[in-house]
Write a structure and sequence with these properties.
With 120 residues, the chain is mainly alpha-helical. Helices cover 42% and strands 5% of the residues. It starts with 7 loop residues before the first helix and ends in an 11-residue tail after the last strand. The model has no long low-confidence stretch (mean pLDDT 82). Helix 2 runs parallel beside helix 5. It is flat, with a radius of gyration of 18 Å.
């Protein structure tokens, strides 16, 4: 809803004098059922994940392939794969882009994705 309303929520926060928000995003612990759902949740769904392969091909869309770094490794559990894909793909590609859209209205901090800060 924070994007579908024409950014009204973020404009309202700005107009109300809110200078920042604290997000509670986590980059681990999301339990998903299979590789296709994990890729889709991370924002990396293929056309064949969403459409019947025959329907996909009739639109002359080039064949899509999952890059090596996105593929599940043989030594990973589904939970490890989900966590890695979220950290290595979703956060830097999807979450950062969505955050950038809001930064014209409010500052944002995501402490659970930030490195520790020493006060020394």
């Amino acid at each position: 809803s924070g994007y579908m309303d024409g950014f009204k929520i973020w404009k309202t926060l700005f107009e109300d004098g809110v200078q920042g928000i604290i997000r509670g995003d986590l980059a681990y612990g999301i339990k998903l059922l299979d590789e296709t759902i994990i890729r889709s949740f991370a924002g990396f769904a293929l056309c064949t994940d969403l459409l019947n392969p025959q329907d996909y091909e009739k639109y002359n869309i080039p064949k899509q392939e999952v890059p090596d770094f996105i593929q599940k490794r043989d030594d990973e559990s589904l939970n490890e794969y989900s966590d890695r894909l979220y950290r290595q793909y979703r956060v830097p590609t999807v979450v950062s882009a969505l955050s950038d859209l809001k930064l014209g209205h409010v500052e944002q901090i995501t402490p659970l994705l930030s490195r520790g800060i020493n006060s020394t």
